[in-house]
Design brief:
mainly alpha
Length: about 210
């Protein structure tokens, strides 16, 4: 794919994944509802800073792998594609039936503590690292330097996160009610699973 096609495809896919409720969503909703929007914004800043940490580590690491061995990079891409397909099938066949804001961990402390907790909840979540390793390389066009391009993709993901989490903070109660509906959670999980499967298969069928 071309650079423009890769950026558009990633924006659509990452946008859908951003909407899918997870720990970050629960953390923001709970913080905004209990502690107010200011501390929710601080938690959001910490979460998104964690995304940059994961994205930067993956970009530098995969960039070094690509420079050292194209074969190793392709093996990593294939492994990531297989993981995405496996994860996607699981989401399609076994979607969640509910999403509870109360599952977010309780937090105590001053303003800086909220930012630190948001950051640590992201950086210490190994699923984020697996996600970035598996997902970012699928959108790397042939011949494009890996590290700068994947940092660009990370920036796009973070900007989408800013928009969505800001919306969560601004409309906490209505959005929380929507996300508690089983049908909505099941639809989002299945749609996300479809995205995972589609990009995993795209890589498997692509000729380079």
């Amino acid at each position: 794919m071309t650079i423009v096609q890769a950026l558009l495809a990633f924006t659509v896919a990452a946008g859908l994944l951003t909407l899918t409720p997870g720990l970050d969503t629960a953390l923001i909703l709970r913080t905004a509802a209990v502690e107010g929007p200011r501390r929710a914004v601080l938690a959001m800043v910490g979460i998104l800073a964690g995304c940059f940490v994961w994205g930067g580590l993956v970009a530098v690491g995969l960039g070094a792998v690509l420079q050292a061995s194209a074969l190793a990079f392709n093996i990593l891409k294939w492994a990531g594609a297989a993981y995405l397909v496996w994860l996607g099938i699981g989401l399609i066949l076994r979607p969640r039936h509910s999403f509870e804001v109360a599952n977010a961990p309780a937090m105590k402390g001053g303003d800086t503590a909220w930012m630190r907790r948001g950051f640590l909840s992201n950086v210490l979540n190994p699923k984020m690292g697996v996600f970035y390793v598996s997902f970012l390389p699928q959108f790397l066009p042939a011949g494009v330097p890996a590290a700068p391009f994947m940092l660009l993709l990370t920036t796009i993901h973070v900007l989408l996160g800013v928009a969505w989490l800001s919306l969560l903070i601004a409309a906490t109660q209505p959005i929380a009610r929507v996300l508690k509906r089983g049908a909505v959670v099941r639809w989002l999980d299945r749609a996300t699973g479809g995205v995972f499967v589609a990009f995993g298969l795209r890589l498997a069928l692509e000729r380079r």
